[in-house]
Specification:
four-stranded antiparallel β-sheet, flat, 1 helix, 4 strands, alpha+beta, 65 residues
Length: 65
């Protein structure tokens, strides 16, 4: 069973709509759920190796953007 790591509430920069990101994990996978308050949600489950690639891409986007 996956454990919840964190929940982040933020405002979508394009739509100004309230949004949420939820990160969960277990021994081998990481799940990311993204959702607009008024819309449905989408959850992605990936290996920890793929999650590390996503972390690196996000770091690059934040520092170089």
């Amino acid at each position: 069973m996956m454990q919840e790591s964190t929940t982040i509430t933020f405002q979508d920069a394009e739509t100004s709509e309230e949004a949420v990101a939820i990160v969960r994990y277990d021994q081998s996978n990481v799940a990311i759920c993204l959702s607009h308050k008024s819309d449905g949600e989408m959850e992605f489950v990936m290996s920890k190796a793929d999650a590390q690639k996503l972390i690196e891409a996000l770091k690059k986007a934040v520092t170089e953007g």
